[in-house]
Amino acid sequence: MNRSPASADAPLLVVLGSLNMDVVVRVPQAPAAGETLHGRSIDHLPGGKGGNQAVGCARQGGAVRMLGCVGADAHGTALRDALARDGIDTRGVRVEAATPTGVALVMVEDSGQNRIVVIPGANAAVQVDPAALRAQLAGAAFLVLQFETPLDQVGLAMEVAAQADCKVLLNPSPMQTLPGAFWPRIDTLVVNELEAQMLSGLPVTGITEAAVAARALLARGPARVVVTLGGEGAVAADADGCRHHPALRVKAVDTTAAGDTFLGALAVSLARGEPFDAAVQLGIRAASLCIGRPGAQPSIPSRDEVLASPVPPAPIALP
Ligand code: RIB
Fold it and tell me: How confident is the model over 107-133, as a mean pLDDT?
């Protein structure tokens, strides 16, 4: 579906990140080592954390510039076309002739749980041109980053964002150790429970522990930290304290891109100047719709769908 361009007053978000063709195999359950089983279906669907987050932002009404790299192949063309259909500016997506487009092998169980293996391909060739990025960040509310592109380029992009006075929203996934220089440059950090545990060095086994970890991460520099907890919702921490945001009860069809969808809705809401807790709630509503549908980008809801969806219970302040 072609989406109409973002409205003139839409907040601008720049997403630097990965673009993958997801090869999605549905299986009753993941095979054990050495086991062969029949799958239910195979599909090629647009994905990649960077691309998904860009689509997540665009479908919530953000004006989005995507920066990344694809190969000179059919997957690369399909991924760029899919972003363009969502009204995303893809002029910053470089075509790298020497490498194939990134591919993710996504195995989805009947339970909705997934297992993903990413072959980075052209995502590993992402290179930040500081002067070009400075121009691309003009007027942007956020630079959105993940860890599916080279870490040194993520660091360089953060440096340019700091010089351009553009806030950084970081989703350090898949997890790698964060260099010390990253911390003061992060405005908003979004992590899942495993990432929170690895980054903080603290156990994250429930809501209380997530709050302790969120506070520890906040103390390292970000203005806001969100720890997403799947079926338990999310914990949000900022200078005003820590709150638990309960989840909505939904039957999971496919959890792929739920985190990316959450992040897109959160980013656009924050970019619109809405309160942090309202932004987290919107993210939960968007992610709840996403997990009820198959695929990565095809499962990301529109703003109208999110606004028509159930509202989760109010956040609960944590001691
Ligand atoms: O976050 C989900 C994404 O992770 C998938 O679309 C896959 O491409 C991997 O990057």
Answer: 96
